Amino acid sequence: MTSDAVTTEARATTATAATATATATTVAAVPRWAERTVRLIPWLGLPVCLWRLPIGFGFLMGLDMPRSDQPLWVTVPYVAALSLLSEAFALLCLVLVRPWGEVVPAGLPLFRSLRGRRVPPAAVVVPMTVAGLGLSLLTLDWLLCTFGLLGFQGVGFTGAGWALLGQVTSGLFCLWGPLVLTATYAYHRRRRAR
Q1: 160-174 and 32-56 helices, crossing angle to 10°
Q2: SS3 state at 125
Q3: Which of 106, 128, 140, 172 is buried deepest, with most CB atoms within 10 A?
Q4: What are phi and psi of 146, to 5 degrees?
């Protein structure tokens, strides 16, 4: 190696270390309530993910509807994938409170040219706001159907216990949208202040 190559490598290492130090301090600025909110989101989605798994196997969990005529090799992977994707998105919400939501991680295997660069706030705020608004529509639908408002009706249940279980699990899931929006707002305010 030439001395120029060693100097360039040393500068790159110093820049990466400086970025890591700067990144580590960004987490301290996260409000405690925002951190707790984002940690709560995967837990709110988990009950409905577990509740829907038996439906993939043909057990309707008290839903008053005909059984699907789809074979298990279609319904089981579909329901499992839907549950896994739900939880993956819930965990992705950590971008709102973690350093990798503000600076591209140095260990990222793809996009080497982006390593250590600041993430534009809009790259996080816009998709999270769209997702939060979409999930909030589910909240509105849940409220209208569960309480029979404005003539809306949800799927019926075969018993009061099944209805309570279905409404509570889906109700917890429907808190997700408003929580994503509030955490996104906190992220936006924190990034705007810097």
Answers
A1: 140
A2: helix
A3: 128
A4: -65, -40
